[in-house]
Structure formats: C-alpha cells, structure tokens
Input
Amino acid sequence: MPTHNSDMSSRIIALWRSVLFLTALSFIAPATQAQDVLGTADKILAVVGKNRIILQSDLDVQFAQYKAQDPSLSDTVKCNLLQQMIVQKLLVEQADRDSLLVSDDEVEESIERRIRYYISQYGSKEKLEEVAGKTIYQLKDGYRDAFREQLMAERMQSKILENVKITPAEVQSFYNKIPVDSLPFFPASVEVGQIVIDPPVSPELDSLARATLTDIRNQIVNEGKSFETMAGLYSADPGSRDNGGRYNDVNRTGGGWAPEFVAAAFRLQNGEVSPIVKTQFGYHIIQMIQRKGEVADLRHILIRPERTSGDFKKAIEKLDSVRSLLMAGKYSFPEAVGKFSTDEAAKMTGGMILDPQTGSSQLEMDKLDPAMVLMLDTIKVGSFSQPQLFTTDRGERSVRIVYLKDRTQPHKANLRDDYSKIQQVALSQKQAKKTEEWLMDRLPNYYIKIDPEYSSCGTFSRWHLDTASK
Output
C-alpha cells in the first residue's frame, strides 16, 4: 500500500479494534482506581464554552479503566482520551444550543440500567458498593450530571450522523484498501437458532404449587413467620433465596421483570405482603421493603410447579414432530419459531441467538453454552438437532431443537464470511469522518482552553488552537 496512506491504515486498524473489542467506559470507577488519583492535586485540564470543565482526576480515572483492560497502554494514550472528552463536551455544548435536551426520567433510567448491569456483574448491590467505595445512592447522585451529558452528546451525535449511510460499493472499496497483513484474524463462529418448548405443567401439580405458596403466605401473614426466613427455606429463586428473597432497586419500567410481578409489587405499601401472583416463572408472593419513587427494594418467594418425566416426554414428542415438519420444508425456521416456540423473546429474532453486546447473529463458540457446543459437532450446516433437554438461563429444565444456519472456520477477515462486520467498521469510519468534519467546522464557534501540559499532543495540532491561552 502507498506510504501516504499509512495514517489511514493506522486509523483502519484502530477502528477494527474499537468496533470489535471496545468495552464502553463506565462512569462508575472502582474504589481502587479512585484511590490511584487520591492525594494528587487536581487541576483543570480543559474548559469548553463558559463552564464545561475537564479535571485531571477525570482523565486519570478514564485512563485507569482503559489500563485495567490493557496493561500495555502507555501514558501517551491520555492525549487521545483528553481529545475524546473535549469532543463530548463540544457535543453537549452544541446540543444545549440546539435545545436537544434530555428529561430527568431519561437520565434516571440510564443510571438505573447501568446500576443493574453492575449489580449483575458483581452479584449483589453490596458487592458493587464495596468495589465502588460508594453507596448506590451516592453513585446515582454523584454521576447524574455525567449521565445527562452523555445522553446529550449521544443525541447530538445521532443528529450529526442521521443521514450517514454506506453502500456495498463503499464497503468493497474500504476492504480493498486494508493491507493484507493488517486484516484481523477471526476465530471459528456459528449462526445458530433454537426452538424451545417448555413442558406443560399438569393441573394437579400446578394446584399443588399454588397451595404450597398459600400455606407459606398464611404462616407469614397470620402466624408471624419471618418472610426472610421463609424465603431462605422455600423459595425456588436461586438469585435471591440466599439473601432472604431480597432484590434492591427493582425498576417499575424495566429490568426484565415480569409485568404481572412489577404491577403487583408497586401496589403494595411498605411491609405489606402481596396476594399470590402468577408469572411465566411460577407463583410468587412479594413483600415491599421500601418504595423510592419508580424503584423499590422488595422480597419475594417463588414456588415453581414441578414437571414430571411424562411432561418432558410430551415436549420431546412435540419437538420431534416440529423437526419433521422443518426437514420436510413445511415451515421455514422463523415460521416454526413463531408457531411452536414457547419462548416469546425468541420470536423477535426468528429463533436466532444473538450476541448480547453487539446484536450480531455470528457467535464465537465461547458465547454458547457447553451443551450446545457439543451438539453442534454432530450436525451439519442447514440441519436440525434431535430434541434435547437443557437448562435455561433461569436455571430451569426445558427442551429444544437447535438449527445450525452457518459455520465459519478460523480465518482472516474476508467479504464473504464477514461482510456485516466489515460493513460496520466501514460505516464507523465514515461516521468518524463526518463527525470530524462537523467538529472542524464548529471549532471556531467555541471557546476552548487546554492546559499547556497537553499542548504537545499532536491530536490537537489540526485544531489550530492556542492551547496556552485561548
């Protein structure tokens, strides 16, 4: 490739890395990272507009998060990080000028999603608070402005990029410019779907589960038994049983909770125990601990109706019939999912399993459960597995057949196998170019002051700023 394109090559490689491997930076820095910058005199590194500032500590914490992911990073990365932080401030400033504001409810929901994500990663609210060195309340209160700015910046960037599209010819051209030795190497991947049928529960066992929970509720409400103790003894929910059935910060408007569960919970007063509530997971009783607006701390006890070997046998027979219909071409796979699957969420994806981080149907093998990996070794592309018992993400046993749509071997990136990935990277580069053009056009309209310590950063040279005094 010509040498005058070396900068483009570097940017292409960087884009590959950012699109395929980047983990979004968190505003919730673990306590150990915060401690790394304690004792260092804080100072203002940059000012954008009248009062949007970036502190040394802001940059240090962001760098520490990147460093934790890649210990080989050097301090020179701070120049790029500072540029990204300044660009975000510029986007926020322009969003403010264009009245692209965000509501308090949007900010709260964004914070709640992030908090729920970290609770799921660390296992409990208490562990998150320990790692962050702050209470959930302090996290929310301390980062509310940061989340508002992030949402405003995203809204402004969406407006800038709303008309940026990419054609197949542009994707081809982008790919042709990548030096062969710079093409990334992809491990084996598959596109795979499944049809799940939860075995029906017999009326007798369903009635028994409800009667069992009715007795538990009576012991709590009328005999004074501890809800917490009874949850630890009897609840079938492994996610809360060892914590006395407790869940903190349950959001009324989201978080994957069954709507019947949420509706019943938010009708309760503090300390009150709900009537029996039926959801797709089984039968619940709920105790409100503390309601805080649209979120609440609560306890619940779950009793699941038992399924017999006969119930599973019926589900396997049903799936065997579905498999025969598929093999005979009576239904396409998405049609069969829509008609027969008891997994409502799967109907939105045509039964295909998607990467939760990227939304892509191309999955590396380590993203699949071990039982499915073993099954895929025995079926060919375009074919369907025999019905199989498996354990769901909720820890329940169910039955499925698996469809192997496609399989790729370890390989260097190419247009045939990786078109969607290459298309996304090409689009990202085009979007980056559009954002840079917008930035260069708007820079003269903003007051920007950058600390002299960073005046040597080459990343600011094309901005033509007087970094010491502007």
